[in-house]
Amino acid sequence: xxxxxxxxxxxxxxxxxxxxxxxxxxxxxxxxxxxxxxxxxxxxxxxxxxxxxxxxxxxxxxxxxxxxxxxxxxxxxxxxxxxxxxxxxxxxxxxxxxxxxxxxxxxxxxxxxxxxxxxxxxxxxxxxxxxxxxxxxxxxxxxxxxxxxxxxxxxxxxxxxxxxxxxxxxxxxxxxxxxxxxxxxxxxxxxxxxxxxxxxxxxxxxxxxxxxxxxxxxxxxxxxxxxxxxxxxxxxxxxxxxxxxxxxxxxxxxxxxxxxxxxxxxxxxxxxxxxxxxxxxxxxxxxxxxxxxxxxxxxxxxxxxxxxxxxxxxxxxxxxxxxxxxxxxxxxxxxxxxxxxxxxxxxxxxxxxxxxxxxxxxxxxxxxxxxxxxxxxxxxxxxxxxxxxxxx
Length: 392
Known about the structure:
The chain is α+β, with helices and mostly antiparallel strands. The protein folds into two domains: about 1-145, Immunoglobulins (Immunoglobulin-like), CATH 2.60.40; about 150-385, 3-Layer(aba) Sandwich (Rossmann fold). Helix content is about 25%, strand content about 30%. It has ten helices and 22 strands. The chain has helices at about 1-5, 40-45, 205-210, 210-220, 250-265, 285-295, 320, 325-330, 345-360, 375-385, and strands at about 25, 45-50, 55, 60-65, 75-80, 90, 90, 95-100, 110-115, 120, 130, 135-140, 160-165, 170-180, 190-195, 230-235, 275-280, 300-305, 310-315, 315, 335-340, 365-370. Helix 4 (about 210-220) runs parallel beside helix 10 (about 375-385).
């Protein structure tokens, strides 16, 4: 089962590596170099079997490879958490490939880094993601429960790139929009989930690293989720010369005044609060929390992934609101808070969730092993989306 997941094509795909790198493009220079005909040149190009640069071995160890024939040292390390940030030296082979096998990496999504002669480098032959404001190598080490985000032979929806004008910044913005299987041949209207990325990421993250489109496809095929449209926005809404803060500009206005009306005009949506949900991870969870509390007339469903339970901050205080279960239950059909076991959810967020649940608030808490990383957010989205729009 695990080896099937290791070989699933989605585990080797990324923004800059669209298929598992098990084939290399080679030039065969044994052909006649003076034969300049087109057929001759085409015949010199061929695909040959190649060892993957990141390979999950049968025992769960991970082998890393890096092509650097002129280097003196090559090292690899995780970014902390379930893959240690302690550098591991790689060994050079006669073919110019450096390699090493690392044991003890726990299942999950792993950002990781390489150093060539002491210089930080991106491995161009390994999957590359975007996080922490810069490109970084990534890989997945699936566990027994990770099948829900794999590419399966089920009906698939589409991911579309939609442009709308931001009245906040004066610029065109891109939203990535998932439509469920059969959308184009149906005449029905659909509820909508707006879901945000974290700091240093953008609207591509929930597809390329969260695989939310595949999660939705699989849940719909299993009959566990209502068919819905999912909208992913870039959460940065800085005006020119505006000083950047943790909350990146007036995204609330951009979402509610510009994006949502555009989505409702282009797609067949159920454009009322009961059929509209918002969620986010990390920074995006704070944005979702604030927008949902400001806009009860627009959102009746809220998901906060790895954002704690931010009842009070310097900018606001919702203590009285969350002490009034009747009001909260009138405003929200779904309230969902989640996080990783190793990022503080159990000590920080879970007690607040239980306290509010004891008051009578209809609230769901969820946690999963892991740190502040994508596997926690995939599991969170998987749970949250099953709760939405149940009345349909």
